[in-house]
Amino acid sequence: MSSINKRKLIFFSTIALSAVCLSAGSFPGQAHAAVGLGASPAVTIDTVAPIVALDPLPANLLVRGGQQVPFHWTTADGHPGTAAADFTAVVEDHGAPVTSRTYLGTWQDTSWDWPAPEMQSGYLSLLVTCRDAFGNTTTARSSDFSVVLSSSGTPTAGLPGAPILDGSSPNPCNPGTTVRFRLPRAQSARLDLFAADGTRIRTLADSEFTAGTHEVFWDGRDDRGRDAASGTYFLRLTADGTQQSRKLALVR
């Protein structure tokens, strides 16, 4: 083979080798690089729940219908939520909603002068919920406060604004338990015990009571003196035209 042909062969062989190396992404002596892979930006994952600081209410707070209860709270979070549903505040009565609102526009520092409706209850409280953009949720609840009708007389310090059925202790019981309730003033009150199917088992009290705290003992028997069966029962306090219920369990 002539020297010219040898040089041509070497030239075209070099071109072919370069093409192969280019298609493979490497040259002799170099490490092969993965095609289409590159550095990805860091992914932020927030697992820390927001902070909610709810200012405490005055002890034994009692207001009349039409008066306002001043609520104030602050929240802090590095990745706050973006929807109104992420920031909610609800005034509840025994866990049932009375009034609700959102505070998206003022989530870092919020005040709410809640107008009390015409009602009577001693188990009202404020529940504030804050959820960040990653779904982490924090709740804060105020202490209980009372609301009475605007036509009610002047309340006595230390007494509830309305009749309150605190419940029983011990609960579950075997068989005896003490039922505790509170009254804002001297009045008649009735305390009944019902089975889960609504059958009245026993009337524990039905008379005039003084204002303050009262306790009634149940010995685990019905009105006829028979032992009540194990199961779930309900206490019901009727006073001031209102009724309150509490669950009680008997385990023999």
Description of the molecule:
There is one protein chain. The strands form 4 sheets. Strands 2, 4, 5, 7, 8 and 9 form a 6-stranded mixed beta sheet that branches. The chain has 1 helix and 16 strands. It folds into 3 domains: about 1-40, no CATH class; about 50-150, Immunoglobulin-like; about 165-250, Immunoglobulin-like (Sandwich). The protein is about 10% helix and about 45% strand. It has about 250 residues and is mainly beta. The longest helix has 22 residues, at about 5-25.
List keywords for this structure.
single chain, 252 residues, mainly beta, Immunoglobulin-like, 3 domains, six-stranded mixed sheet, 1 helix, 45% strand, flat
Compact description:
The chain has 252 residues and is mainly beta. It has one helix spanning 3-24; strands at residues 51-54, 62-64, 68-76, 87-93, 96-102, 109-115, 121-131, 137-141, 145-148, 164-169, 177-183, 187-195, 200-209, 212-218, 231-239, 242-250. It has three domains: 1-38, no CATH class; 51-148, Sandwich (Immunoglobulin-like); 164-250, Immunoglobulin-like, CATH 2.60.40.
Number of strands: 16
Give the CA-CA distance, first to last residue.
111 Å
Q: What are the low-pLDDT stretches, counting only 5+ consecutive residues below 50? A: 8-12, 15-35
CATH class of the largest domain: Mainly Beta
Count of alpha and pi helical runs: 1
Quaternary class: single chain
CATH architecture of the largest domain: Sandwich
**How would you characterize the largest beta sheet?**
6 strands, mixed
